[in-house]
Amino acid sequence: MHTSDEIYHRVLWDPRFDPERFVMGIAERGAPPKRVLLGDFVPGGEIPWHRVVFFEADGQLVWDRASGVDRLDETLVEPVIPVPAPAPAPGDVLAVPSTNRTAVAWLPPAQLWPPIQHIRREHDRQIRRWPPHVNVLFGFVPEAEFARALPLVAAALAETPPFTARLAGVHWFVHLEDATVWLNPAAAGHEPWERLWESLELRFPLCGSHPHGFTPHLSLGRTPNPRSLAHKVEALLGPMTARVDELVLLSRRGDEPMRVRARVLLGSGEVGHPENPALPNGPPPSPPA
């Protein structure tokens, strides 16, 4: 049987494995094992190797210290060579400066809102301004440009078929005095999210710049104690899955919250509006009063 550090380093360095697919189980005294994304584990840090008790790939157990399961090689996949999205024609680009009053985002389905909003009510000062969301482009073009932007968004989204997102794993971005704690919507893989972002960024070159790369995330709140809040969130939220079959264009008018102005379906690029009852899923629920 391989040791836990051997499994870790094989997944990390063998190009046939995708580390984003793997979760490690860390033994906790008096509690169930804590699940940690393999990419977030720090060798030689606070957690010794003997506390690593299992590895999962795509939710399936592939190595388990207690039972002797050791089938990592069954998860081997051929490396995927990314194919860059085709560059749009000059007329298919809208080079308009962005504003933080608009965004292109994914909204999780209504049935996932209650536990997310329960956490946000206590920790997210933006709960009355934003619904639960994963931004793909923020900021985006001003709302006055939405008529010109929608055909380009539709063309970009037609290049990516709908996919299933797995929301699991809690992380945080560190600021000067506190940190933003967030839920990872790309636990099943970053590739479809990155494809969406790249297709949109090509058509809106002045929007959504990410100098350190695009990190899809669902913000839960800000706190000076991110580790404590992360533990709380992990206890309240188990892994969730949802179908990503549309993105929405959001805008904020005056002191209003961000509201959905249009919806665009993945795979087809079909455009609809929240007041259109024929559009799949209907309008999202309003933020809590």
Task: Give the helix/strand layout.
Elements: H1 4-13, E1 22-28, E2 31-37, E3 52-57, E4 60-64, E5 69-70, E6 102-106, H2 113-123, E7 134-137, H3 146-157, E8 163-167, E9 170-174, E10 179-183, H4 191-203, E11 218-223, H5 226-236, E12 240-244, E13 246-251, E14 259-265, E15 271-272
Antiparallel strand pairs: 1-2, 1-3, 3-4, 4-5, 6-7, 6-13, 8-12, 9-10, 10-11, 13-14, 14-15
Helix pairs in contact: 3-4
Task: Describe the protein's architecture and organization.
The chain has 289 residues and is an alpha+beta fold. The chain is 20% helix and 27% strand. It has helices spanning 4-13, 113-123, 146-157, 191-203, 226-236, and strands spanning 22-28, 31-37, 52-57, 60-64, 69-70, 102-106, 134-137, 163-167, 170-174, 179-183, 218-223, 240-244, 246-251, 259-265, 271-272. The protein has a five-stranded antiparallel sheet, covered by helices on one side. A hairpin with a 2-residue loop joins strand 1 and strand 2. Helix 3 (146-157) runs antiparallel to helix 4 (191-203). The longest helix is centred in the C-terminal third of the chain and has 13 residues, at 191-203. The chain starts with a helix and ends in a 17-residue tail after the last strand. The model is unreliable at 78-83 and 275-289 (pLDDT under 50).
